[in-house]
Amino acid sequence: MYVRLKETIRAGIDAGEWKAGDTIPSEREICAAYGISRMTARQAIGDLVHEGVLTRRQGRGTFVAHPKIAQRLRYLTGFTQDMAARGLVGTSTLLNASLAAAPDDVARELGVRAGRALAYVERLRLANGAPVGIERAWLAISGAEKLIASDLSTGSLYERLAELGHHPVRAEQEISASLANERETELLGLGPGAPVLRTKRRSFDDAGRAIELAEAVYRGDAYAFTSELIAKTEA
């Protein structure tokens, strides 16, 4: 019964009965409409949430999920380029742009003296107006004052770096999964303890210097990373 209900809800979404962002009927309403038990309705909805078709928002109900933004792990691109490639409009809310003393761990990653003044930029990233991620970047570059004085709420950070003569050409990136903290929950509009994806990227210029250490957190129900894997040929 719950499998049939799942497919009925999925078919309704595919047919446009419920669109991305719409609230679906409550469990009580579904039970009354289809003559099923509360347990059956709960299991079907729970499965669709797990599959990313639906998303729950604490105290607000269950909604049709927006399609996930897929970022390919092959090319070094920024958020703005990623969104444009998918037909989405990527924008930013600037949370912080300042010169800040490099903490010990950041200094080690970038190969600079601890306490050196670096450009620090933190932005809330939005896709078609919806918050999907928070990005923080430490930048060991010349012209840091010009960077933080520029308008970082629009356009690409990498474009700003290029204007200052800094061109990231290679990066090392780590990806992990965890739960959102209180501040991230508020900024991203998530429920308590919602899953998120975290990335840590160290970018290098063409001389091999580490010029950026960026950490980001993305909504787990809105973002996905994809890669192409090729079998190793034995010699």
Task: Write up this protein.
The chain is an alpha+beta fold. The chain has 2 domains: 63 residues, Arc Repressor Mutant, subunit A (Orthogonal Bundle), CATH 1.10.10.10; 158 residues, Chorismate lyase, CATH 3.40.1410. It contains 8 helices and 10 strands. The strands form 3 sheets. The protein has a 6-stranded antiparallel β-sheet with strand order 4-5-6-9-8-7. It has a two-stranded antiparallel sheet with strand order 1-2. It is elongated and about 65 Å long.
Short characterization:
This protein is of the alpha+beta class and 235 residues long. It has 8 helices and 10 strands.
Oligomer: single chain
Can you give the helix content as a percent range? Answer: 25-40%
- Arrangement of strands in the largest sheet: 4-5-6-9-8-7
The helix tally amounts to 8
Keywords:
235 residues; alpha+beta; Chorismate lyase; 8 helices; 29% helix; 34% strand
Helix-strand layout with pairing:
Layout: H1 2-14, H2 27-34, H3 38-50, E1 54-57, E2 61-64, E3 69-72, H4 79-85, E4 90-101, H5 104-110, E5 117-127, E6 130-139, H6 144-149, H7 157-163, E7 170-179, H8 182-188, E8 195-204, E9 210-219, E10 223-226
Parallel strand pairs: 3-10
Antiparallel strand pairs: 1-2, 4-5, 5-6, 6-9, 7-8, 8-9
